[in-house]
DNA sequence: TGGTTTCTGTGCTGAGCGATACAGAAATGG
DNA sequence: CCATTTCTGTATCGCTCAGCACAGAAACCA
């Protein structure tokens, strides 16, 4: 593992985790390299040597976020026995995840780059693609529900996915605005009470 | 009206309208003073003389946004005969408003300051307060529905307001990501199909 | 041991940020 | 007319941004 040259004096994975926290908390554009180096406990050249540039570091941070915070969601989606159970598990998990005491509130993928500088539209598009993937995963789980018979044939699964994705995105905004776990749970209760009506529109 | 001194050589209201567009499109932090002066067609000192500073200009822009874009929403809320009609009118109006060809997509109040620099937390809080007001207006309209009998007594109106607010906020995110009017309408269709279930949770 | 390689910390770079100093221009009041 | 006031354009200000040059330090290999 160790080739020639002076070995890195910091834990790359731990530093990335700290960077993820900062980006999650403060967003891409409004996080400065100084914020990052301070949080990561390293100097600027070490950061550039290990991660390339701010944008590459952000992409790695997003990937880490998806793996750690998004992992349980994906798992809940696939492991639940029915489409309804899957959606409910995702929503209730997010109601908890978005209001954890020791973590930034809401979803990083929804909140971290709603806008960006003209030169960095790539960053916004990158997150938009992740959002799109999340919605598609949800739609595919609904499709599976149709195939397995727990959802009626003819359901507009992509429309239902858009709807529940909108609820989740709104929960992110409200979580960031300080909404409590109880409030998010009330939103989830209503979104799930709506299930039968939502899947049988037209 | 005209006192002593050289008269202003530009239309203050028109310049403010242009500034609102830019802030709506690009957000608070990611809009530079150069972006603003260019769009407004004036030089920096004229901007500062007329509007104070970037933050004051933003607040005026938000107030203008609320008056122009938010006005129809507030009107729909009060003029609709029932709470259900009111909520549906707001949602359908927003499905259109968020996808207009010649305007930035989504709601400025939801999108323009999800994050800000450490020194400008006031700006974020300012918009968060506007979001909170919108949700409260919705809750008050639901309360009126209870008083007028078109909603059953005992409805958790603030929970229902949180739920529909979440849907609207999610619609803003998806509109900004490029969702079509048709897609937003499908979300609205489902959110409204859910009405009976949503207002009778527990 | 010395040569090579890679990382580290100091200190800097050009560019862009929000905000102004200043002098001249254009209005009013006397 | 001239004094006063306020706006306008030019030309910056000090500061922070993302990113890097460079020299020294710490590992490897021969």
UniProtKB/TrEMBL annotation, chains A, B:
InterPro entries: Homeodomain-like_sf (IPR009057), HTH_TetR (IPR001647), Tet_transcr_reg_TetR-rel_C_sf (IPR036271), TetR_C (IPR011075). Residues 32-51 bind DNA. It comes from the Bacteria. It holds the Pfam family TetR_C_13. Residues 9-69 form the HTH tetR-type domain. Gene3D superfamilies: Homeodomain-like, Tetracycline Repressor, domain 2. Keywords: DNA-binding, Transcription, Transcription regulation. GO terms for molecular function: DNA binding. The keyword DNA-binding applies. The keyword Transcription regulation applies. This is TetR family transcriptional regulator. It comes from Wenjunlia vitaminophila (Streptomyces vitaminophilus).
């Amino acid at each position: 593992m160790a080739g020639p040259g002076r070995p890195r004096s910091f834990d790359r994975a731990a530093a990335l985790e700290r960077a993820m926290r900062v980006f999650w908390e403060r967003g891409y554009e409004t996080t400065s390299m100084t914020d990052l180096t301070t949080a990561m406990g390293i100097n600027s050249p070490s950061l550039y040597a290990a991660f390339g540039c701010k944008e590459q570091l952000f992409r790695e941070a997003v990937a880490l976020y998806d793996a750690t915070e998004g992992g349980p969601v994906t798992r809940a989606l696939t492991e639940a026995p029915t489409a309804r159970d899957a959606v409910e598990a995702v929503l209730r998990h997010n109601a908890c995840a978005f209001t954890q005491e020791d973590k930034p509130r809401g979803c990083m993928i929804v909140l971290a780059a709603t806008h960006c500088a003209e030169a960095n539209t790539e960053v916004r598009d990158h997150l938009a693609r992740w959002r799109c993937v999340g919605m598609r995963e949800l739609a595919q789980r609904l499709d599976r529900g149709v195939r397995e018979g727990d959802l009626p044939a003819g359901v507009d699964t992509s429309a239902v996915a858009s709807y529940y994705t909108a609820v989740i995105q709104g929960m992110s905004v409200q979580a960031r605005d300080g909404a409590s776990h109880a409030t998010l749970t009330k939103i989830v209760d209503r979104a799930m009470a709506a299930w039968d009506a939502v899947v049988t529109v037209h």
